[in-house]
Amino acid sequence: MEPIVQMTGITKRFPGVIALNHIDFDVRPGEVHVLLGENGAGKSTLMKVLSGAYTPDEGTIRLGGKEYKHLTPHISAEGGISIIYQELSVVNWLDIRENIFMGRLPMKKMGPVPVVDYAQMNRRTEELLEKVNLGHRKPTTPVSELSISEKQMVEIAKAVAFNARVIVMDEPTSSLTEEEIQRLFTIIRQLRSEGKGIVFISHKLSEIAQIGDRITIMKDGGYVGTYQVADLTTDDMIRLMVGREIKGTYQHTPEENFQFGDVIFECRHLTRKDGRCKDVSFQLRQGEILGFSGLVGAGRSETMCAIYGAAPKVSGEIILHGKTLSIKNPYTALRQGIGLVTENRRETGFFQNFSNKRNIAIAQQLKNSSLDGLGGFTNEKQEQAIAEKQREEIQIKCSSLEQLTVELSGGNQQKVILGKWMASNVQLLIFDEPTKGIDVGTKSEIYKLMRGLADQGIGVIVVSSEMTELLGLCDRIAVMADGRITAMYDVADATEEKLAKAATAETTASA
Amino acid sequence: MKTLQKKKFTFNDYWDRYSTITILVIMIAVFGALRPTSFLTGSNLIKIMEQSSITILLGLGEFFAILLGGIDLSVSSTMALSGALTAQLMVNAGLPPLVAILIGVIIFGAAIGMVNGFLVTATGLPPFIITLGTQALLRSLGYIVTDARAVSGLPASFSKTMGGKLFDIIPVPILVALVTAAILTFFTAKLQAGRNLYALGGNSQSAWYAGITVKKHTILAFAISGVCAALAGMVNIARLAAAEPNAGTGYETYAIEAVIIGGASFFGGVGKIPKVIIGGLIIGVINNGLNMVGVSSYYQQLAMGCLLILAVTLDRFFGASRKN
Question: What is the predicted pLDDT for the residue at B222?
Answer without folding.
Answer: 97
